[in-house]
Amino acid sequence: MSETDTRTRTKPKIKTKQPKLHKVLLVNDDFTPREFVVQVLKAVFRLTADTAYAKMMVAHQKGVCVIAVYTREIAETKATEAVDLAQQNGFPLLFTTEPEE
Ligand code: TYC
């Protein structure tokens, strides 16, 4: 009759970490037309017209507004895309990224 193996087996624990999320921030300026800001938010960040308008107004009134959170690579790509669009149209519109706490 065979006996039950009671030895302890240590299974290697694979540690995985969730990637840190990064915020994309919209920064106010005195030159970029409101309508252009809304167009960029709709095109690059896929916001609805209402959400884009609301976020544009928060940046306009408070100086800055969080637009969305993504993994670092996507946040940086989208911020760059949005700034490039503004530059192509001669506007100083600025988007920045920062890691979430
Ligand atoms: N302040 C700009 C204006 O009055 C509009 C604007 C809003 C610009 C938000 C940038 O992030 C911004 N024309």
* Major beta sheet summary: 3 strands, antiparallel
Question: Low-confidence parts lasting 5 or more residues at pLDDT below 50?
Answer: none
Order of SSEs: EHHEHE
Quick one: CATH superfamily of the domain at 31-99? Ribosomal protein L7/L12, C-terminal domain/Adaptor protein ClpS
Numbering strands along the chain, what is their spatial order in the largest sheet? 2-1-3
SS elements, strand count = 3
Radius of gyration: 22 Å
Number of helices: 3
| CATH-defined architecture of the domain at 31-99 | 2-Layer Sandwich
CATH secondary-structure class of the domain at 31-99: Alpha Beta
User: What is the CATH topology of the domain at 31-99?
Assistant: Ribosomal Protein L30, Chain: A
The gross shape turns out to be elongated
Structural class: alpha+beta
Helix content: 40-55%
Report the portion of residues in β strands: 15-25%
End-to-end gap: 59 Å
Bound molecules: L-tyrosinamide
State mean pLDDT (0 to 100 scale).
94
